[in-house]
Design goal:
Elements (H helix, E strand, L loop, with lengths): L16 E2 L8 E2 H16 L8 E4 L8 E5 L16 H4 L9 E6 H7 L12 H6 L5 E4 L3 E5 L6
Antiparallel strand pairs: 1-2, 3-4, 3-7, 4-5, 5-6
Length: 152
């Protein structure tokens, strides 16, 4: 029968509050530690980084696309010349989804043959200035098929 008084059953120590070193507030061991581990995992391994090879999940015949920039914008913040946002053009994805900027692998190799030696994203201004074709995508529309050279 479930306990209604709250707190751990007599003799159980796995649910007692625990004060880790350097923390101001105690944790409930199981739930709080699991949530903390989940947050740490998300921070350590982003879905996409510069150099990842991805496919467009909506393409009939996917081609290799390279992640070249992650501008930190949401779909409703990327505006095209016609005034529409990426959210307007991709209504099936949430407006707050993250934008990933990609270019076809063969195009990138033509313009920047040593792109794999880079350790940082290519700034959008450089892409425009060098006339390198690129496209913004909702992150949820892409799937990583090959890890970047920057992933350990």
């Amino acid at each position: 029968m479930p306990r209604k008084g709250g707190g751990p059953p007599d003799g159980r120590t796995d649910e007692e509050q625990w004060q880790p070193p350097g923390r101001e507030e105690p944790l409930q061991r199981s739930l709080d530690m699991a949530l903390e581990l989940e947050l740490d995992d998300e921070e350590e391994d982003p879905d996409f980084i510069y150099g990842d090879i991805v496919h467009d999940t909506e393409a009939d015949e996917p081609i290799a696309l390279v992640v070249i920039n992650i501008p930190g914008l949401e779909l409703d913040e990327w505006e095209f010349e016609d005034g529409d946002t990426l959210a307007d053009k991709t209504p099936k994805y949430p407006d707050d989804d993250e934008i990933i900027v990609v270019t076809p692998l063969d195009v990138l190799e033509q313009h920047i043959p040593r792109w794999g030696d880079r350790e940082a994203a290519i700034p959008l201004e450089d892409l425009v200035e060098e006339k390198i074709p690129f496209a913004p995508f909702p992150s949820l529309q892409l799937v990583r098929v090959e890890d970047s050279h920057l992933r350990d």
